[in-house]
């Protein structure tokens, strides 16, 4: 390993000599003032219109190495034009560096723009300043990632990768420190160096210490520039955040906390792999060992300069000792947690249930007799904490598939950029609203954002009341519209009819929806409902229907049913509200909205669940006239709703729905699955009906006497769960299996579902034929 540049002093150049060099090589006239430099001679050059930093390299530093540094910096500034780093000024000959002869030896000279700032050594030491360092280093590494130059593949004393070669320097370390350094060296040699060799490499800065970081003069928590590219080397990129973290931990009682600030900020800009994060604590310690070894040796070499050389030594040793006291696993767990990669704590099942019940409250039930304890998900697959994979045929929130990368990428990118409320002007939010409006028919174009389906229906009711001056609501018999006080009152599924408010009346329900003459009946049912409301002192403000009639037992909207219902509702002076919380966004197929299956145009549409693929989002969409009527009496604002993050997520969901043709797929796969379920129905008398639009399918079960088989449905959903397929149940008697998978569900998934249902029905009911499945 070449150590010579350390052993030689910087070139002897006076300010006037420096001025002559700048003039000759760069064509710039300026006044030179000396700057600090350990092995190079540096000057500040004040020209008439700009200020530069001149660096005259140590003659032991090869010209190609210095040239590679300048080219790398140029490259990085091109990739990231706002990079906090100086800009390279080329020579008169157009070269990245010049070469001058000093005392008969060639020296590389480099000119960069001078960045005003305070050295981080004297700066504020706060979590924000540490994060700023992490961000700046990450931006630099991200911008350097694609750069390649043979001179950077060099062997350098300051490259942590080569730490084992510094072992002989232990002799220069005072005996009281030697033991710790020796032990850390051994750990590095045995455990860390082999792991480091497997990590991704690229050009790295190699020395993001406070002496190389300039903080903005007016904001000491902001990095103005990373400077000094003299240690640039091709090495494991994780070394950069590790080195920055080591120095930023100086002086802290808990170095782990300081390191976490740097690493998390780095990770947010230029994500690290888990295996990289797992090495950071050791690599930071290795950097401190390296620094202590080199400075002990150099202090002996230059006794006159020993104070300067050893200036960091005390802090390095203190921090190393503190890091060394800590349990390495615990240190790493802290870094992983800071990067959002903590491994969840695994409790025994009983303890997990108890904690949930105690902390989330007893009003929340759990699905399935054998609770599903989830760890992760992808597409239509859920993986439980034991690694068992389950086919998700139930969850309609992850409409485009669990954890769709385009949605999660949009979410995290926007969350890193900006999130705020709708009282500021952010075009992306209005553009998303515009996109939604274009997906809806007629005048439906004004979008009011909320955070859930319940809030959307609640707001729809407020709007309908203001717009009509009335207060009555008509629902279907076993409806569910939400969990706020007003929407719970419209949800007999949840509250039971006895607790429904006097301003709510219901129509139809399963008996009508399943009948051939549903469309003929509905106007009469509505008139009765209006009369009931009238008698209780409420004129009708709105009719609200979920067009897949999920809680009523899942029905494809009967032909002309909504047309007749909307006509009667409007004739009574009330508004027609389509609750698309379940039916919307392609679930019913290419019609895209449930109400569209019957060719109607609602006055208000409410959205939720699939809108954000799991990110809490909801919306009310209405006409400009109704929105205006509402605005005259009311203000509306919901702090978290319609955030830029929500808009980014919602747009990504729309992109995926269109790009992957998911609504069409809902039609195709839905038809296939219904056909396969009809085959099962032929074999199992327990199946009374298979129905529903698109990928919202109900399988109604009956008992041997023809009655509703709620208990069998319960056993079947539990049996399916044990066989690795999740479905739910619904309907007034909870006897309808509810199948509404993410829309990325494919025919082979449908086959798997049918096979599991076949086996389950075989076990839980009596098949028409002997045995369908083993
Ligand atoms: N409307 C319908 C038709 C629903 O199914 C639901 C939820 N199941 C809601 C509204 C309420 O949505 P959220 O739970 O997101 O508030």
Question: What ligands are attached or bound here?
Answer: 4'-deoxy-4'-aminopyridoxal-5'-phosphate
Helical segment count = 25
* SS-based class: alpha+beta
Q: How are strands sequenced across the largest beta sheet?
A: 15-21-20-19-18-16-17
> Number of DSSP strands?
26
Terminal-residue CA separation: 70 Å
Shape call: elongated
Beta-strand percent range: 15-25%
Mean pLDDT: 94
Spans of at least 5 consecutive residues whose pLDDT stays below 50 are none
Radius of gyration: 35 Å
Oligomer: single chain
- Helix percent band: 40-55%
Largest sheet: 7 strands, mixed
Characterize the structure shown.
By secondary structure, this protein is an alpha+beta fold. Helices cover 43% and strands 16% of the residues. The protein has 25 helices and 26 strands. The strands form six sheets. The protein has a seven-stranded mixed β-sheet with strand order 15-21-20-19-18-16-17, sandwiched between helices. Strands 1, 2, 3, 4, 5 and 6 form a six-stranded antiparallel β-sheet that branches. Helix 7 (255-269) packs parallel to helix 11 (328-338) and helix 24 (710-722) packs across helix 25. It is elongated and about 105 Å long. The model has no long low-confidence stretch (mean pLDDT 94). It binds 4'-deoxy-4'-aminopyridoxal-5'-phosphate (PMP). 4'-deoxy-4'-aminopyridoxal-5'-phosphate binds at residues 452-454, 457, 480-483, 546, 550, 579, 581-582, 608-609.
How would you describe this structure in keywords?
774 residues, alpha+beta, 16% strand, binds 4'-deoxy-4'-aminopyridoxal-5'-phosphate
